[in-house]
Amino acid sequence: MNGVFLQGGGAKGAFQAGVICALHDRGVVFDVISGTSIGAINGYFLLKGAYDEMKHAWLTKSFSQEGVDIDSPIIESSGALEVLSGVREDACDPSVQHFYVNFVPVVEQRLHHQWADLVPLSEEERFEIIRHSSLLPKGIGEDPFDGNYNLQQATERFKTDLKDGLYDDYKLDGGLLNNAFLEPFEENKMDKLYLIVFKTTFEVPKYIIERYDEHEICLIASDIQYEKTDTLNFDENFLRGNFERGYAIGSDVSIE
After folding, report:
1. What is the CA radius of gyration of the chain?
2. 58: number of Cβ within 10 Å
3. In three state form, how does the secondary structure of the chain look?
4. How many whole angstroms separate alpha carbon 6 and alpha carbon 13?
5. pLDDT of residue 65
6. How far apart are CA 209 and CA 206, in angstroms?
7. What pLDDT does residue 180 have?
8. What is the Cα–Cα distance from 47 to 54, expressed in whole angstroms?
9. Nearest to 216 by CA among 248, 181, 250, 185
10. What per-residue confidence (pLDDT) applies to 231?
11. Of 230, 131, 136, which Cα lies nearest the Cα of 175?
12. Alpha-carbon distance values, 29 to 23, 32, 120, 194, 217 (Å)
């Protein structure tokens, strides 16, 4: 059995999609998926076996930022969910036995890490959890796509707003607490575990290293030097370049 972990990283998910498509073209089949944020969105394409649709989405579309509510404290992933709606009615890939997505409920000014297996759920429930997993906090009155958005300032403002109870009862991006969401693979041992991440400095959790032999882990990291703002960089040229680089790396990585 093969497992794949899809890290969160916003627009950098184009790299992830390129790797996935390359592995698929080489005959790699995934039985268990875990995804965070954009990893959950790409994971839904895998759940549906919609590799061509995923490739088309990243290469020909800048996920729409229309509908950003300036007066809201969150950034919706409505553009990405709209793209996913194109494969919503498709049957699931029978190879996928589990698809785990994490998210962060806020209760009394505190963040809590949770996850769910989307395979047994309805499409409405799947979409709702994927939406939560990619729901990023932002300052009220700020436009994250106006070219002046400061992620460091936004992080500090989130801490303040969190203490003020602004996010109580929200369910937010899973990456806020765990962007190395590998817990599903601790008990459910895979024959091969693929990790598709965005930094060469990514550290595999100790509990995974202790559970797997070295040859059972395939760590695939981007070699692109990202800026902090690239998480929200949905420029079509940026997406295409990341996808193509991901495909090239995925085509060369050892799958034995």
Report:
1. 17
2. 28
3. CEEEEECCCHHHHHHHHHHHHHHHHCCCCCCEEEECCHHHHHHHHHHCCCHHHHHHHHHHCCCCCCCCCCCCCEECCHHHHHHHHHHCCCCCCCCCCEEEEEEEEEECCEECCEEEECCCCCHHHHHHHHHHHCCEECCCCCCCCCCCCCHHHHHHHHHHHHHCCCCCCCEEEHHHCCCCCCCHHHHCCCCEEEEEECCCCCCCCHHHHHHCCHHHEEEEECCCCCCHHHHHCCCHHHHHHHHHHHHHHHHHCCCC
4. 9
5. 60
6. 5
7. 96
8. 11
9. 185
10. 87
11. 136
12. 8, 9, 20, 11, 15
pLDDT at residue 67, rounded to an integer: 57
Tokens in use for 252? 């060369």
Retrieve residue 233's tokens: 């960089």
For the record, the structure tokens of 154 come out as 């936004």
pLDDT tens track of the chain, all 256 residues?
999 999 999 999 999 999 999 999 999 999 999 999 999 999 999 999 999 999 999 998 656 565 578 888 998 888 888 889 999 999 999 999 999 999 999 999 999 999 999 999 999 999 999 999 999 998 888 887 777 777 778 888 999 999 999 999 999 999 999 999 999 999 899 999 999 999 989 999 999 999 999 999 999 999 999 988 898 888 899 999 999 999 999 999 998 7
Give the tokens for residue 255: 């799958």
Q: How many CB atoms lie within 10 A of CB 154?
A: 16
d(CA 193, CA 223): 20
In one-letter notation, the amino acid at residue 95 is S
